[in-house]
Amino acid sequence: MSAQVTVRYFAGAKAAAGLGEEQVSAADVAELKAVLGRRHGPALDKVLAVSTLLVDGLAAKDPSTALPAGVTVEVLPPFAGG
């Protein structure tokens, strides 16, 4: 069952999505990525493929990571610089 979650975008993810934050319904990380790709297209798909997703501050390395209602998911693309 899908839950309503908050997605926050940073850096290149924010540029690709065209916004900083949105509400999305998804049951797990895999479904979330699919929903976001459909909403925002191939530019965000490319960013998601190399990004770290934090689920309430913890890295979600497994696509089957469950997303409970009200959780915040942060999309952090790789950063460069120094």
In a few lines, what is going on in this structure?
The chain is of the alpha+beta class and 82 residues long. Helix content is 34%, strand content 29%.
CATH C-level name: Alpha Beta
Q: Superfamily at the CATH H level?
A: Beta-grasp domain
Helix content: 25-40%
Question: Which of globular, elongated, flat, extended, rod-shaped describes the shape?
Answer: globular
Strand order of the largest sheet: 2-1-5-3-4
How many angstroms separate the termini?
42 Å
Give the low-confidence spans: none
Integer count of domains? 1
What is the rounded Rg?
12 Å
What fold name stands as the CATH topology? Ubiquitin-like (UB roll)
Number of strands: 5
Rounded mean pLDDT score: 94
Number of helices: 3
How can the largest sheet be summarized?
5 strands, mixed
Strand percentage: 25-35%
CATH architecture: Roll
Q: In sequence order, what are the helices and strands, one letter per element?
A: EHEHHEEE
SS-derived structural category: alpha+beta
Structure overview:
The protein has one domain (3-76): Ubiquitin-like (UB roll). It contains 3 helices and 5 strands, in the order βαβααβββ. It has helices spanning 11-17, 29-40, 42-50; strands at residues 3-9, 21-26, 52-55, 58-59, 72-76. Helix 1 packs antiparallel against helix 3 and helix 2 (29-40) packs antiparallel against helix 3 (42-50).
SSE layout:
Layout: E1 3-9, H1 11-17, E2 21-26, H2 29-40, H3 42-50, E3 52-55, E4 58-59, E5 72-76
Parallel strand pairs: 1-5
Antiparallel strand pairs: 1-2, 3-4, 3-5
Helix pairs in contact: 1-3, 2-3
Q: Which descriptors apply to this entry?
A:
82 residues, alpha+beta, Ubiquitin-like (UB roll), five-stranded mixed β-sheet, 3 helices, 5 strands, 29% strand
